[in-house]
């Protein structure tokens, strides 16, 4: 049995029954059978289904958002925005995806060769709690358009969101079996990956979860896409607009209460503007209002659980013990919920274990860099390579950062965010493969080349 807990109050919510082994088997069999028919459905009809799903998300936006807020604590305003983004994601693939699946012809020495994009079968998604709708839509929209079918193993914390997605897709008229929610525990995933009827797996989550899934997929010789953790640098150079950079840095650090893989986690600031930026940044972080996530005036809700908050508080204590100075915040707030204040830590030893980890909460580490070479070295001196944000109005510096920062994504003078139109993913221990854009659509397809 899964039990939802409201992290703002500690109050138990809805319960959800776990599937039995026989029930899981029945759903896999249904997915396998559904794929045989869905792959033959004309592309225009598959796109029309995505349009109808988008309409369902829009029509039920408030209710869906409230489920997410009560299950994992994000502010209602951000949850509503997330549901709206999901509708936009479905609509993007409905309207633009068919063109991405047009055959491509190449001229070879032996004559023309044409590559066709063909579906392969059921795809398993193992998804996290931090963006409980958007993470799923990033997988399911291209999966259904491609002619594949989807199986979702969602996080234990957000089973209500998983059930709501299932309901929306069914209400939109999806044929039975083309998308199914699997309320199961993580220890059941290995057997699913080994099942020959499941052709591929995609995971968004921790390094540990990614390694387990990759190992299982490797044994089964199956394609896997991994979107794992990040410790994204936010680099500020002397030519930057410091007022704007500081304001955006605070927003980028505390979005989703700091529980996003692409949150700006390490502020790397050129020595010439370090003090000026730090003053502005601390003022912006100090102004972050933590509180009731249902209140429109709240900037930041609770963390997803007491356990998650305590993990972040322990990381802060480790940094302080190593010589880091906590300039503000970073403390548990009174009450029953999993609240903490936004915090800023400076003088962190760059080789400290926590400085090399992903801190999944609203605490920023600020580092000083003497020049662009030092800034790039600091940015790359972690195991991760997901996103990055660079603030400079110098074109040569922008080119250096784009070329030399080891990350799958770089935002220039703006906050990094995902978008259905552009590929999303990382390098190093942040995973491999891409979601979104045409590349996300093609990841689990058979690119069949036909000669003649």
From TrEMBL:
- Residues in Aldehyde dehydrogenase domain copies: 2-450
Keyword presence, NADP:
yes
Question: Sorted alphabetically, which InterPro entries does this protein's record hold?
Answer: Ald_DH/histidinol_DH, Ald_DH_C, Ald_DH_CS_CYS, Ald_DH_N, Aldehyde_DH_dom, ALDH_GabD1-like, GABD/Sad-like
Question: Quick check: keyword NADP in the entry?
Answer: yes
Molecular functions (GO terms): aldehyde dehydrogenase [NAD(P)+] activity; succinate-semialdehyde dehydrogenase (NAD+) activity
Q: Which UniProt keywords apply?
A: NADP, Oxidoreductase
Matching Gene3D superfamilies: Aldehyde Dehydrogenase, Chain A, domain 1 (3.40.605.10), Aldehyde Dehydrogenase, Chain A, domain 2 (3.40.309.10)
Similarity field? Belongs to the aldehyde dehydrogenase family.
Protein name per UniProt: NADP-dependent succinic semialdehyde dehydrogenase
């Amino acid at each position: 049995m899964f039990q939802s807990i409201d992290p703002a109050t500690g109050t138990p919510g809805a319960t959800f029954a776990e599937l039995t082994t026989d029930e899981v088997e029945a759903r896999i069999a249904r997915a396998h059978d559904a794929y045989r028919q869905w792959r033959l459905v004309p592309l225009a009809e598959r796109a029309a289904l995505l349009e109808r799903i988008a309409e369902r998300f829009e029509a039920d936006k408030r209710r869906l958002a409230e489920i997410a807020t009560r299950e994992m604590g994000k502010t209602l305003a951000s949850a509503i925005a997330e549901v709206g983004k999901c509708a936009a994601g479905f609509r993007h693939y409905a309207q633009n995806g068919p063109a991405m699946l047009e055959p491509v012809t190449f001229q070879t020495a032996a004559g023309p060769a044409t590559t066709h994009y063909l579906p392969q079968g059921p795809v398993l998604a193992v998804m996290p709690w931090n963006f409980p709708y958007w993470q799923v839509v990033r997988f399911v929209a291209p999966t259904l358009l491609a002619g594949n079918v989807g199986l979702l193993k969602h996080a234990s914390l957000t089973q209500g969101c998983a059930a709501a997605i299932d309901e929306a897709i069914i209400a939109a008229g999806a044929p039975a079996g083309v998308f199914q929610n699997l309320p199961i525990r993580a220890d059941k995933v290995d057997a699913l990956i080994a099942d020959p009827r499941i052709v591929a797996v995609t995971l968004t989550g921790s390094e540990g979860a990614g390694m387990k899934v990759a190992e299982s997929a490797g044994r089964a010789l199956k394609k896997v896409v991994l979107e794992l953790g990040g410790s994204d640098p936010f680099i500020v150079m002397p030519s930057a607009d410091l007022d704007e950079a500081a304001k955006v840095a605070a927003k980028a650090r505390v979005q989703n209460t700091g529980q996003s893989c692409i949150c700006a986690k390490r502020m790397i600031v050129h020595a010439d503007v370090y003090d000026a930026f730090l003053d502005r940044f601390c003022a912006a972080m100090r102004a972050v209002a933590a509180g009731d996530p249902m209140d429109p005036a709240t900037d930041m809700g609770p963390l997803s659980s007491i356990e998650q908050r305590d993990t972040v508080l322990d990381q802060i204590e480790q940094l302080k013990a190593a010589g880091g100075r906590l300039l503000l915040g970073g403390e548990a707030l009174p009450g029953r919920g999993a609240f903490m204040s936004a915090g800023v830590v400076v003088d962190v030893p760059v080789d400290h274990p926590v400085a090399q980890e992903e801190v999944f909460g609203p605490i920023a580490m600020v580092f000083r860099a003497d020049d662009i070479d030092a800034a790039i070295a600091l940015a790359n001196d972690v195991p991760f390579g997901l996103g990055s944000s660079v603030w400079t109005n110098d074109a040569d510096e922008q080119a250096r950062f784009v070329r030399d920062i080891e990350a799958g994504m770089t935002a220039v003078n703006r906050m990094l965010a995902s978008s259905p139109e552009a590929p999303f993913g990382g390098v190093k221990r942040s995973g491999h493969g891409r979601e979104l854009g045409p590349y996300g659509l093609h990841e689990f397809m058979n690119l069949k080349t036909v000669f003649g």
